[in-house]
Amino acid sequence: xxxDRQLCFALYASSLAMTKLYKPLLAPLGLTYPQYLVLLxxxxxxxxxxxxxxxxxxLDSGTLTPLLKRMEQAGLxxxxxxxxxxxxxxxxxxxxxxxxKDRARSIPQQLACASACSLQELESLTQRLHQLREQLQxxxxxxxxxxx
Length: 148
Fold this sequence. Notes:
Layout: H1 7-26, H2 33-44, E1 48-49, H3 50-57, H4 61-73, E2 77-82, E3 85-93, H5 95-104, H6 107-115, H7 119-138
Antiparallel strand pairs: 1-3, 2-3
């Protein structure tokens, strides 16, 4: 029951450390870390629906919609209704959002250097974390023994 032996805490603390490193790199671009993740997904494949984007980013619509609204107000993207299905909202990069890709291009390399890990170590760790996430998502919620 030691904190430093808990996987959940190691992942949580590592995530905090990672986002802390991103903050000064993203500030000159006027981006938050969640906004950067949205842009990464759209730079990879522009014109996704809100549902597709939420699935890709592992975010529910209650979290994603306000984020997209702020990004639209900042001129980074446009949201529009799908003419074939009015229930579906499509998200596309604006010219400004697309232009940020070039300015952000060095960020992954800067983070890799800060990690002091080799490229092979980072690729292996990333792959293993993806596998862990998939395994956890497939897992049945553990049952808590009755404390009676």
